[in-house]
Amino acid sequence: MPDAADGAQLSGFRLNLRIVSVVIFNFASYLTIGLPLAVLPGYVHDVMGFSAFWAGLVISLQYFATLLSRPHAGRYADQLGPKKIVVFGLCGCFLSGLSYLLAAMGGSWPMVSLVLLCLGRVILGIGQSFAGTGSTLWGVGVVGSLHIGRVISWNGIVTYGAMAMGAPLGVLCYQYGGLHGLALVIMAVAALAVICALPRAEVKAAKGKVMSFRAVLGRVWPYGMALALASAGFGVIATFITLFYDAKGWDGAAFALTLFSCAFVGTRLLFPNGINRLGGLNVAMLCFTVEIIGLLLVGIADTPLVAKIGTFFAGAGFSLVFPALGVVAVKAVPQQNQGSALATYTVFMDLSLGITGPLAGLMMAWMGVSTIYLAAAGLVAIALLLGWRLKKRPPVEQPKAASSAD
């Protein structure tokens, strides 16, 4: 495999191909998330006979495990190299499928099965955290830091693609093979990914002084906060657009979500070099502006067409926020700490999406569903102001250890 220095010489198709050859392992990890996503709630509630609370908890455990393990994933990726972290994460995805299989085999003991399902979700959350963080850093190591924005963008594309494919495919597997069959498919996906990853060449972990989590957080938190504010717009679209359409008496909520997704993926594909050309903060501020327009259009919409246009703009605006801010956040620390920076930065989005749902639900109950989109536009406007302040701030001087990194 050509080394990272050669990545600067690549462009277009060859560059994308090299990135995809690494981030495909993140696709595999997210496919193992998507496959059981539409099956497990109904299985826990309808087949096993547990309440809706337990059905929701089984799903939520994965997100909590991902959130808590991300900083550790980043630190170990910095210390051991990203390939080892990816393989470790994919092994976790495999073990989650094994837990589902054991739960299906122990169906006559519902409580044991429930514990096994919960265990599998926790292992999956940790596995995805390691596989996702590792694959991003591996991709950067393969093509060079010049293309970090494109690597992060491709990771997002494969993430959403895997989730979109996984849910219907998981339902199909469950229909024909039950939970046993679904578990075996999950194990096969993870095992195949591990087999493909092992022969790949490693990229060396950068040498140098490792910063503490508090020090990394101190460098990254402004960009993470802007990401968290902007993620509120994504959260209210993804979670409540169906209820918004129902409250208005309209049809076509699913198509609105499709428009959001198409705008999200399409923007990343159409503007792969935008971050390198304009700079991360400039792209982020432009994206904030487009997202605000989209959310305002949804909030004031009195026809389905206006709402659909709004969701399209919101998707296009949010599309490049994560990679644009991520490029700046990762470069705010020395190279040997970039895994920790990326993982810490991503935690802000995880927290935002976890908090947005319940808070927006309370606001919707008190003030109506339209207000949550106007409120989200206000939060993104704060992110825009924060981005402007960050752009005016003098750059952070890197410690000497960064210059000696291999």
Automatic annotation (TrEMBL):
Entry annotated with the keyword Cell inner membrane: yes
Predominant localisation class: membrane
Gene3D superfamilies referenced in this protein's UniProt entry, alphabetically: MFS general substrate transporter like domains (1.20.1250.20)
UniProt keyword terms in alphabetical order: Cell inner membrane, Cell membrane, Membrane, Transmembrane, Transmembrane helix, Transport
Lineage: superkingdom: Bacteria
InterPro entries with a match to the protein in the record: MFS (IPR011701), MFS_trans_sf (IPR036259), MFS_Transporters (IPR050171), MFS_YhhS-like (IPR023008)
Family statement drawn from the similarity comment of this UniProt entry: Belongs to the major facilitator superfamily. YhhS family.
Protein name as annotated: Uncharacterized MFS-type transporter G163CM_38490
Organism listed in the record: Pseudocitrobacter corydidari
